[in-house]
Structure formats: C-alpha cells, structure tokens
Write a sequence for this structure.
DNA sequence: CCAATTATGACAGTAATACTATCGTATAAC
DNA sequence: GTTATACGATAGTATTACTGTCATAATTGG
C-alpha cells in the first residue's frame, strides 16, 4: 500500500511537472502575439523565424539608441551576428522595416483597446479607455517576449511620422501599407460617433487624438514650451486628462 | 505761356516716371522680406546674397519635387549652376537647410497673424484670424519675390516634422533652433488665454492647432480615411471651420 | 585706383550608405 | 535521400555626405 501510494506520488509529481511545463509553454506561445500585417511590408514574415524575431527585437533597441537616420542594416546585422543580405531577405529597406514596426504597434494598441472595451456598455467609458490605452499602451501587461512595447512606443513617438511622410505615400497607401493605422483610427472614430452620433468630424478627432498624444509627449520631453504637459511621473495621467477634457468639450459631454 | 506749360508737362512726366520707378524699387524691397533667424542655422545668411536666394528658392522647388530624402546638395548645385562646396558654405547640411526653411515659414505665418490682428479688439476674432492665417498663409499676398510661399507651405506640411524629429533635438533646442516655432505658438497661446483666461492648456491647444492643421491636410490628400476633411477646393475652408469649431468648444465660446 | 579681403568655382578625395550578385553550406521538407 | 530554402561569407557598385586645396572673380577699404 505504501509502495503503491509512493508510486502514485511519483506519478503525481511527474504529472504536476508536466502540467507546469505545458503551462509555461502555453504562456510562451501567448507571449508571442503575432499580427497579420500587410504582405507588402516584408518579403518574409520576421514573426515566423528566430532570426526575424531577433531583427525586430534589436531594430527597436538600435533605432531607439541611435535614431532612425543613423540606423543601418549593417549595424543591425553586426548586433545580431548576421549579415546585411539576410536582413534584406526580410525587408526591402529600412523604411519598410519602420512601417512594419509602427504597424505592429498600432495593431497592438487596437488589440488592447478592443479587449478592454469588450464588456463595456457606456460609450463615454469606452472612449476613456481608448484614450488611456493610446497614451499608456505598455504599462499593463507585456504582450510579447521579444518586443519591448515600452521602447516601441518611444520609437513611434520619435519616428512614427516618418513612416508615411514620404514621397511614395500614395503608392504605399494603395497597396494597403497603412491599414493598421486606418483600422485603429476607424475603431476610435466609431466610438466617438457612439458618444455623439451627430458629430461631423469623427475621423479627424480620432486621428488627432493619436497624433496629438504622441506629439505632446515629444514636445513635453524635448521642446517643453510647445506643450502644457510637463514630462515626469505625472505626464501620462496629465495627458490622458487633457485628451479626455478636449474630447469631452468637443463632443458636448460633461465629465 | 504755352511754352512754359509744355515745359511743365515735360517735368511733370519726368516726375511721374521717377515716382513710378521709385515705387517699383520700394515694391522690390518690400517684396523681399527678410527674417532674423537663429545664427546656428547657417554659416552665411542666404537672404543676403544672390547665390543664397537662389539656394532657398530652388531648394524649396526641388524638395517639393523629389522629397527631402532624395534631395541632395549636389542636385541643388546642378540646378542653380553652382557647386556642392558653395552650398556647404551656407548650410552645414541638408537638415539645417530644412530647419532654416521651416523657421522662415513660421516667421512668415507669425508676421501675417501679427499684422492682421493689429487693430482687432475682440479676442475670439483674433483667434479666428490666426486660424485662417495658419491654414492659408499664402493666399492673400505673396511676401517674397524668390520664395514661393505656396510651395513652402506644402513643404512644411510634407516634411516639417522632420525638422525636429531627430536625435539631436535637445542640442538644437538648446541653441535656439526652434525659436521661430516657439514664438508663433506663444503668440497664439496668448490669444487663447485672452479668449479664456482660466484655460489650462493654452500651449498644447496652440501647438496642436498648427500640427493638426498641417497633418489633416496631409491626411486629406494622401490617406483620406484618417480625416473628416476632403481634399479639393473647399478643403481649406472646411479645415478652418473644423479648427474653429474645436477651439470654440474647448474654450467654451459659442460661435 | 590700387591693395586686401572675401566669395565662388573647379577639381580631387574619402568614408559610409544602400544596395545587388554569387556561391557554398546547413537545415528542413517532402 | 533528394530537393528546396534559408543563411552566411564575400565581393562589388553607385551614390551620399561630406572635407581640402587652389585659382580666380568680385567686393570693399583706404
């Protein structure tokens, strides 16, 4: 009897170890959120290979460190112990890598907003959640093992506009390269219309919330005279309050 | 008597010709508005020489044609029949040329707003004029013989953000490179405070008016799903109406 | 009006950038 | 066990973003 019991305990232990390992494995999988981005963005999807993930992970760090202008595929290759050519097999050029990164970021923000408003009835509450998420897309839970959302957000604040402020903007738009941003802006524009169905400028207010949020953080941190928000611990909350104040006034919603 | 009269007529004619010529000369001088920009922006002030003016005039056209990324001093030199080296004697690099051009533009907008609100008493009217001027800085009167303000405005809409979205933003800010933009934002922020002295976010609303105006034009023309404004003949008026509507709501001013 | 200074053009040169091409090997797929 | 493919290694090219030198033209000062 004691022998059988001890056998059972051994198997139970083994089972528990197995379940724990599977949980970690599952967690590992969940921790690697993958987004279906526009096919034109890359030759090969970097989310599907180890090398590709290394490129994503380290390009974010490197661009954040030295800025997009100084960033080159050669430097990235050196950092991940690969070659320029291998990176070119994934991305046609560094500009498309930037569009990939910003698209991934906007997908991530949309994903966050969507899960957070899922069970919310009140439209103003939805808008409040959307604003909070677009300002602090990183704080709550890290969504990905190899993508540092905090850094990525900083990157989008610093370099995001360069993704579409280019000569070929019309061609790139035609093949759907800015779809992630458009879908996000539409999501929030629809919430805005829920709050005030008669409002004429839902798309402009929506896109301006995103642009203004990032811009005001940039100003607060680098050209403070251009912003009423001060950088520091309270910055994000102050920014959320301001965006919410503006939206409330514009949409005739008393808060 | 007739002889004396005819003599008088000859002198009168000469006088008229002289006055006309002087008027043209004066007009010529007025047509070349010069702004005192930050000394760090250029080695030699291009506004003071023929070659420098050629650089300004043609860099605007060239950047508008091929985009800032593809723009090089070599191409500009070829276009004006000069050499790379000569351009480097005026500007350290193409980035500083861009900062120079955008600064000139912001000085020009501030100049326009200031002369147009000079004799206005009502603060809301001042704000309305400011908004109209920041959207249509070009329409009324061309301010400069060698600078095409229309093109320059398009350039600022397309490439303006790149002037400060750089790694060295803090250093450049320290030496006063963005002073023109700061002064303009301050001018409008003060008008906003005149409209509503209790308003907490005057700087942010002011900078956002400028950023939003340019951004929404860019979206309207290139990624229309991101804007409620449609490109075309009515675009500018629609944009003015929207900015005025937003400002009015935010500042509790019924329009 | 001449001397001195300064601005420009002509030409050369360099390190880095933004790619493209070829080839051998390792690895995964069928 | 062959075949496809992914990757690394190496080489090469046109262009970019500058810097340096020198002769000449234009402007300024006395």
């Amino acid at each position: 009897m004691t022998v059988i019991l001890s056998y059972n305990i051994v198997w139970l232990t083994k089972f528990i170890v197995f379940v724990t390992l599977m949980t970690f494995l599952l967690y590992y999988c969940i921790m690697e959120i993958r987004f279906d981005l526009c096919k034109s963005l890359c030759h090969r999807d970097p989310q599907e290979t180890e090398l590709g993930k290394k490129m994503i992970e380290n390009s974010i760090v490197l661009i954040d460190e030295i800025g997009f202008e100084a960033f080159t595929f050669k430097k990235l290759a050196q950092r991940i112990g690969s070659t320029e050519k291998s990176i070119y097999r994934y991305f046609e050029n560094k500009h498309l890598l930037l569009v990939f990164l910003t698209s991934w970021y906007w997908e991530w923000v949309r994903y966050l907003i969507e899960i957070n408003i899922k069970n919310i009835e009140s439209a103003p509450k939805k808008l409040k959640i959307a604003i909070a998420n677009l300002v602090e897309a990183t704080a709550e839970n890290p969504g990905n093992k190899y993508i540092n959302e905090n850094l990525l957000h900083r990157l989008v604040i610093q370099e995001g506009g360069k993704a579409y402020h280019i000569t070929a903007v019309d061609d790139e738009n035609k093949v759907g390269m800015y779809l992630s941003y458009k879908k996000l802006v539409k999501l929030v524009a629809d919430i805005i219309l829920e709050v005030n169905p008669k409002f004429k400028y839902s798309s402009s207010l929506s896109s301006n919330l995103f642009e203004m949020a990032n811009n005001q953080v940039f100003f607060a941190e680098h050209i403070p005279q251009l912003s009423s928000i001060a950088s520091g611990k309270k910055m994000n909350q102050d920014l959320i309050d301001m965006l919410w104040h503006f939206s409330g006034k514009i949409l005739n919603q008393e808060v």
In short: The mean pLDDT of chain B is 90. DSSP finds eleven helices and no strands in chain B. The radius of gyration of chain B is 22 Å. Chain B touches chain A through 47 residues (CB under 8 Å).
